[in-house]
Amino acid sequence: MHLIITDAWLAKSRAIYLSGTKLVVVGFITAFALMVVAAGLYHWVFLKGAREGWPVVGTLVKLVVKDEFEQRDRFMRENLDVMAKRVGEMQAKMIQLEALGERVSGLAGVNPGDIKSTIGSGGALVASRSLTMEELQATLADFDKITDQRVDLMTLMESRLFDQKIKKLMIPTQQPVVGGILGSSFGWRIDPVNGQSALHTGLDFPSGQGTPILAAAGGVVVAQEYHPAYGNMVEIDHGNDLVTRYAHASKVLVKKGDLIKRGQKIAEVGSTGRSTGSHLHFEVLVQGVFQDPQKFLTAGQKMPPGQMTALASSNAASPAIQLPRPK
After folding, report:
1. Residues 176-192 pLDDT 10s
2. What is residue 319's predicted lDDT score, i.e. its pLDDT?
3. Segments in the chain below pLDDT 70
4. Domain boundaries, the chain
5. Using CA atoms in the order 104, 110, 113, 118, what is the torsion angle rounded to 10 degrees?
6. I need a surface site. Which of 41, 185, 258, 273 has the fewest CB within 10 A?
């Protein structure tokens, strides 16, 4: 492409040659310069018009700003509606949690009314509207308060259930001999040694020599000795004046002061002391009074945990014959 520039005053001319590449570059530069100038003018006109309140420009600016605010408000409204829906779902789950808490509290012996809970509400939906940000924040604050209350209730129930479990483990309801057949029961009988009527203060479990003897409950060994009548004997204190005694053992595996777990092997069946054959003599004493061990063993199979804890105290008050403990 050839461009010829002529100077009328000097009667001179100048020729400029532009190739295709140069022509494209010049075109882009010219277009970019026009865009920058147009953008600057547009920006200047709108700013000046908005500041000085030009009729046409001011109206356009108001329309642009209004549309922008409407879009922003619509975006926030949509997000609030989504959050409100989630809050409704959380409310439904909270109601389910409260119902579950009431059922579990009954098992734990806790009155759910002792901890303040939300008041029930409801009714037909007549008209609805979207929640405001303030209402949503207030609802979330209520949820936070309710959650704290639920945590307090669950913590209390956990403590009660744990306490019941511990007490259950401390009540002698475990069979002292696995698969043991009951021989002589608690009460009056014909003494197998002298043939006279005598009080049998425990249960006899005939078993083979060396059969494991298991602790009927957790506790502390308070006696481990040889007694002329009981032979090799072990006594375990389970707290609350409750003691179990295991007699006629051939071998003892624990010593005084040992901590014992429920079901732990503490000795082996034998026929030491005043005995006519290999067996375990098992006794339960409450406040030094002999009780029928079968009541405790049966309670472990039939009674709920909450009733087991009252078994020892009820047996302590029941009629029984108090004999001197072995010395």
Report:
1. 998 878 999 999 999 88
2. 45
3. 1-20, 42, 44-68, 106-131, 300-327
4. 2-52, 63-117+129-169, 187-317
5. -40
6. 41
CA angle centred on 117, ends 112 and 120, rounded to 5°: 110
pLDDT in tens, 271-327: 999 999 999 999 999 999 999 999 998 876 665 544 544 555 555 444 444 444 444
> Distance between CA 68 and CA 79 in Å, rounded?
17
Q: What is the pTM of this model?
A: 0.52
187-317 under CATH 2.70.70.10, yes or no = yes
